[in-house]
Amino acid sequence: MSETIVLRQSTDKLLAMAVGCLAGIGACAWALVNLHTGNLVENVESIRRGWFAYWLLWAGLPFLGVGCWVFAKDGMAAARGRASLTLDEVGFQEQTTGRDRRLCWNQVSPFEVYTKRRFGVPAVSMVVFDVLDQPADWWSGMNRNVAGRGAWLQQSYELPPQELADLLNKYRDAALSDKLESVGKCEPA
């Protein structure tokens, strides 16, 4: 496969983060309004609402700040076209917020789909793989305990996870077959 494919970041993740940020801003706004008006009324219900509003405001602000920061960072990366997965005959390059790595096809195991279940219901599916000849570290050990593999792609780039795994395996198999001799030219970033 000599064709280079560039897959862009899924907008679903950004949309979910935007909804979460708006919900957090709404909850904090409700808490501020409730604190402002709730302290003037001297009944038991307003006191309960006031304590809940204090808790919601001070516990929610750090999470809201981090969530909005990650959303802004991911959104800017997606707007600049920086959040992508590039596949070519030599390997793949994953560029996301906080990650820019290039791996050669001969450095990775076959790709599989891991589905995390919550309460017996499939919740999240992701593409997992192993980086061969990588020294064992804490993160890869934790990943292996959770998903059975040492590494994964952070998203599926607007493809269903199984289709992405099949596409990656197709490129990997073509590169490792005797047809291509360019695998030796790979220099990871």
What can you see in these coordinates?
With 189 residues, this protein is an alpha+beta fold. It has helices at 11-38, 44-79, 138-147, 161-176; strands at residues 5-8, 84-87, 91-96, 99-104, 112-118, 121-129, 151-152. It has a four-stranded antiparallel sheet with strand order 1-2-3-4. A hairpin with a 2-residue loop joins β5 and β6. α1 runs antiparallel to α2. The model has no long low-confidence stretch (mean pLDDT 75).
What does this entry show, briefly?
By secondary structure, the chain is an alpha+beta fold. The protein is built from four helices and seven strands.
Determine the strand fraction and express it as a percent band: 15-25%
Rounded mean pLDDT score:
75
Count every helix, treating DSSP H or I runs of 4 or more residues as helices: 4
**N-to-C terminal Cα separation, in Å?**
21 Å
Reported for the largest beta sheet, the result is: 4 strands, antiparallel
Helix content: 40-55%
Arrangement of strands in the largest sheet = 1-2-3-4
Structural class: alpha+beta
Bulk shape: elongated
Order of helices and strands, N to C?
EHHEEEEEHEH
Radius of gyration: 22 Å
How many beta-strand segments? 7
Q: How many structural domains are formed by the residues?
A: 2
Name the poorly predicted regions. Answer: none
